[in-house]
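Translate sequence into structure tokens.
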Amino acid sequence: MRRHCQPNRRAALALAATAALALAAPGAWADTWPSKPVKIVVPFAPGGTTDILARAVAPELSKAFGQQFIVDNRAGAGGNIGAEIVAKSPNDGYTFLMGTVGTHGINRALYKNLPYDPIKDFVPVTLVAAVPNVLEMNAEKARQYGIRNVPDLIKYLKANPNKLNMASSGSGTSIHLAGELFKSMTGTQMTHVPYKGSGPALLDMVAGNADVMFDNLPSSMQQIKGGKLTALAVTSSQRSSALPDVPTVEEAGGPALKGYEASSWFGLLAPAGTSPDVVNRVQQAVAKALGTPEVKEKMQAQGAIPSGNTPAQFTKHIADEHVKWAKVVKDSGATVD
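Result follows.
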């Protein structure tokens, strides 16, 4: 009887030894990562800045790791649908989120029933880039209404409440909140029209179906340079090197807009519990790519400021952004449509 139990006992001991070895070297499995394609979920439609930055980073990661990094657009609910998908994905290193100031800075204060916890459900990997938003109009509409600058826009809005509609990439995004903050500080009214990303909103802006937008600069740059959109101001505290002749909102708006600032940012996050080894390897690969002249110059030409900071630095940035945007939501009286 004893003889028959020996193989089972040996197998159990071998299994225990293997488990102990795995526990002793928790990062060992990461040596084989990635052994299959990796997904980067973009929580907005194609064509916007979130999508542009994800598609700039993905091929660099593919080259670095020898596996394809695939961009997967999951638009809707101000980025909440895509963020929830990643929050509930396995933490095996094969799913990442291109998070935004909306999904990880604004939405917690704006939505009463957020389907994910932006702090507990994710591990920050790295901030990819920060960008100013740009206050812009359909160029033909701007000419038609005689709006050449921010004071002209304020004057027109006060004389014509809600006549202009304000497009955004979705309720709760920085594009939406930048507009709400502008309205609250100037005492003006525009009708908010949310889309499932900057791409669809820009199509309507160019077509003349939407009038005003506070878009992320990279996604609008081509249309501004092409004369389809008129840039009135940037929402950052300083002018953008990509549009040096365009003033800031604070600079152009006078006393009523003193202190106005509403910039955006975009960064990679993984489901909570993802191996620190994988997180650090991805962060280092992104930082290396963003430091190359080719990628850096391409981003800066679009108005983006590349980062590539550490997971710890990105974690602190997200915590600080929660505090900042909770105040903006409260002060502007913004609500989800």
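Note: The first strand starts at residue 38 and ends at 42.
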